[in-house]
Amino acid sequence: MSQNSIIGNAIVNNPATINTVTEVSPDLLLNEIDSRLVKIRPMSTPIDQISRFASTRKAGSMIVDYYSVDTRPSSFFITKLDGVYSGLTPLPHYELQVANGPVPCQVSETLLIPSITFTDKTGNKIMAMLYVVSTSTDKAEVIAVNQPEGSGDLNIGNGVEVVRMGRAATELDVQTPQYQAIPVKSTNFCQIFKAQVEQSTFVKLANKETGWTFSDQEESAVIDMRLGMEKSFLFGTKLRFDDPVKHEEVLLTGGIWNQVSRHWTYKRGGKFTATDIVSMMKEAFTLNAGSSRKILIGGSGFIQKLHTVGEDNYFMSPDRMITKWGIDFTELRTKFGTLYVVLSEVFDLCGHADDAFILDPEYLTKYTHIPFQAETLNLRNSGQRNTDAIVLTEASCLVLRYPDAHMRIQAVD
């Protein structure tokens, strides 16, 4: 093709071929392919389906470095609360210790101990309130601001929960200890997913025709490829190793199942109750600063458990259907939030039929080193086979930016 074939963003004196269109608009065909992909069996691959609508970033390398950050915990557990001295002020002073330092509180913060109550002058029960005077690595000096006089020292043992409350500054305070949420660097690998179809008509994939026509063989190849990607995106293990035959490096992507530490368990045997559903929803939507609407993707055993609630299952009804990202969900509602529930055959295939995963789509990011593309191989001219082959390729990975906004659900014996 002559250099004068492309003038600005126009193609002149030549037909619009793959090369010319890619040169003028590199993302046009790739975006078109991706938009067509989501129409192929979306219910079979919900994670891959949602990721194609989620935030996508171009990765310049097969190794992706990303940062995730969570909010400071609203509560923590102390190992000891001992009296120190009480001579400086009429308020009793204490030394607060935590198991795994540093202490998650700062000077001028107030703390609440729900398990300790006092009786005020009117006879009402009030919870112990502490004020942080100073902090060190694993200790904090506090004063019990509402402890009645003569009630004795508070000697609290291991495992007592303390809730962080608001700061209380003095009139002359200009500054306050800084709040810093430091992101933690993590790494994931982009995995090269491939499928090959030896059928020349697949070149229509790049043509700007109305619709995207598939032969049975072509559609079957894409479905199989997406199912493999779905399994890797969910349960893959991040790993790099050398192929002993090809002597080349292979990168395996890490699945989102292993990217979260938050989990909820239930007994494998027995019947699910309304109390179980409320407990699960409470764990999924509280103390993580996530969205009020999340997605629950589960295996057949777990979905069956949801239906065993029977007539008491006023949380979920067949009438509450919603379609998002091309997937038909059933709504599961409580006062804590709303879950979009969908069955995934991948959980059954990977040995997690009784498990599920709650995903916050707002904090799912897809990194793509090689966007989904089709490459033609002329096997006839190379003397291999009397066919033209199409190779489908994508190198990508999924990451969760706020791990605590998502949750694993696991059955235990």
What does this protein look like?
This protein is of the alpha+beta class. The chain contains seven helices and 23 strands. The protein has helices spanning 18-24, 28-37, 46-51, 216-235, 274-285, 300-307, 345-349, and strands spanning 6-7, 10-11, 55-58, 63-68, 75-83, 93-98, 109-119, 125-135, 139-144, 160-167, 184-189, 191-197, 239-242, 249-252, 263-267, 293-298, 316-324, 327-333, 338-343, 356-359, 364-378, 388-400, 407-412. It has a seven-stranded mixed beta sheet with strand order 15-23-20-16-19-18-17. The longest helix is centred in the middle third of the chain and has 20 residues, at 216-235. It is elongated. The protein starts with 5 loop residues before the first strand and ends with a strand. Residues 6-22, 24-32, 200-206 and 208-214 have low confidence and may be disordered.
Itemize the secondary structure elements and their pairings.
Layout: E1 6-7, E2 10-11, H1 18-24, H2 28-37, H3 46-51, E3 55-58, E4 63-68, E5 75-83, E6 93-98, E7 109-119, E8 125-135, E9 139-144, E10 160-167, E11 184-189, E12 191-197, H4 216-235, E13 239-242, E14 249-252, E15 263-267, H5 274-285, E16 293-298, H6 300-307, E17 316-324, E18 327-333, E19 338-343, H7 345-349, E20 356-359, E21 364-378, E22 388-400, E23 407-412
Parallel strand pairs: 3-21, 15-23, 16-19
Antiparallel strand pairs: 1-2, 4-11, 5-6, 5-10, 6-9, 7-8, 7-10, 8-9, 12-22, 13-14, 16-20, 17-18, 18-19, 20-23, 21-22
